[in-house]
Every structure is written in C-alpha cells, then in structure tokens.
Amino acid sequence: MAKHTNTRPHKCTLCDYSAVEKKGLKFHMATHTGEKPYTCEFCNFATHKKTYLKSHVLTHSADKPFKCQVCDYSAVQMGNLKKHMLKHTQPKIKVKKEPKKHSCPHCEYETVIKEAMTKHIRTHTGEKPFKCQQCDYSAAQSGTLKKHVLSVHTSERPYNCGHCDFSSASKNGLFSHVRTIHGGERPYQCSYCDYSAAQNGQLKDHIMAKHTNTRPHKCTLCDYSSVTKKS
C-alpha cells in the first residue's frame, strides 16, 4: 500500500530521508556509516549497493555488447553508450577564428581589412592609381577623384560657407573648410612627431618628406625627385 499511497514509514534517524521499503533505508544508511559490503573480486572497488557492483564488474569484461551505430565505439554498459552518442547528436560549437591582421611594412599600422591596408600603403608609396579623364590629376582613392571632378571640372558647388564666399562641391569639403580655416583646427596629427595639419593631404606630404623619405615624383631629365608633383 505504501507504493500507492506515497507513504514512507521507514525514516532515517540522522537526516530527513524516508523510504517506502526497509531495504531502501538500509541502502541510505550506508551513506552515513560509510559501509560498503559489496566488493569487486578483480580490484579494490567497493560499494554499498549490489547493483552498482554488477555494473562495475562489467568494466573488467572484454565483452562490449553496446555498439555505436555511427562509429566503431562500443561500451560495456548502455549508459556509457548513451553518453557517447551525445558526441554525435549535440551541435558542434564553431570557434570563431580571430581575423588575420595585416601589418604595414613601413610603419606600425595594422588592420584586419585588406583594402584598408592597400589604401594606407599608398600614403607611403605615393601611388595614385585613379586617373582623371579630363586632366593629368590622379588620386590614391576613387572617392578623392570624384571630389576632384566635381570641384574642378563641373561648376556645381552647392555647399556654401556662412562665414565667407567659399563654396564646395561636397559637404565634407565645406565642413573641413569651416573647421580648419574659420575654426583654426588642425585635426590631422602626425604619429611620428608633434606636427599637425589642417588637411589630410598635408599630413601625408609631411610624413613622406620628413619621416619615410618617400619621393614618388621623379624628374625624367635628372635624379631629382619630390614629395609633391608641383614641387
């Protein structure tokens, strides 16, 4: 009746545990006394429960009847096979690889974006692959060339300065003008010295002339070379 009524008449005198059957209490008491009457004949293993000993003895057997259906693994006990099967059923956690860093051969600049490194290296080499179709102007970046075409070869200058007669073909051009001419800012700071410039192009020319000794513009008649094309 105890199984049906959930009555647990056999109570432990050392804790709150209670059992339906007397043998259940006997197994529990072993956890308090440390008694382990069931011992393995092959090793020093001992336990308080007979079923635990039976499971243990199987580990000494060469017979492994529980076979994995996915790989060659086999186990002595079904429980071990179930644990093994989790390796096949659990989703594998992909470890995100740290992005490869690209290092500049001319300075300490690093980036994980290959295109950004290509643009950066041009500040050292002076390479300007983007050519204007209407004059001999060339630029290191396509965006710079577009600004050139708008400001030099078209009459469109929709961005007007509120402090003077200056107008610009781009919003960034107007912002740079106001910040540097009227605000006196020199936001482009050299990473090698205390020099700062109002424009990014001025900083690039400074780095090539003073720190990297890069002179990309060479004379076709003698050995003279310069940082800027007009010099």
UniProtKB/TrEMBL annotation:
Key words of the record: DNA-binding, Metal-binding, Nucleus, Repeat, Zinc, Zinc-finger
UniProt protein name: Zinc finger protein 64-like
Subcellular localization(s) per the UniProt record: Nucleus
Entry's Gene Ontology molecular function annotations: DNA binding; zinc ion binding
Predominant location category: nucleus
Gene Ontology cellular component annotations, sorted alphabetically: nucleus
Annotated signal peptide: none
Domain C2H2-type span(s) in chain numbering: 10-37, 38-65, 66-93, 102-129, 130-158, 159-187, 188-216
Organism for this UniProt entry: Branchiostoma floridae
PROSITE patterns according to UniProt: ZINC_FINGER_C2H2_2
GO terms for biological process, alphabetical: regulation of gene expression
InterPro entries for this protein: Snail/Krueppel_Znf, Znf-C2H2_CTCF, Znf_C2H2_sf, Znf_C2H2_type
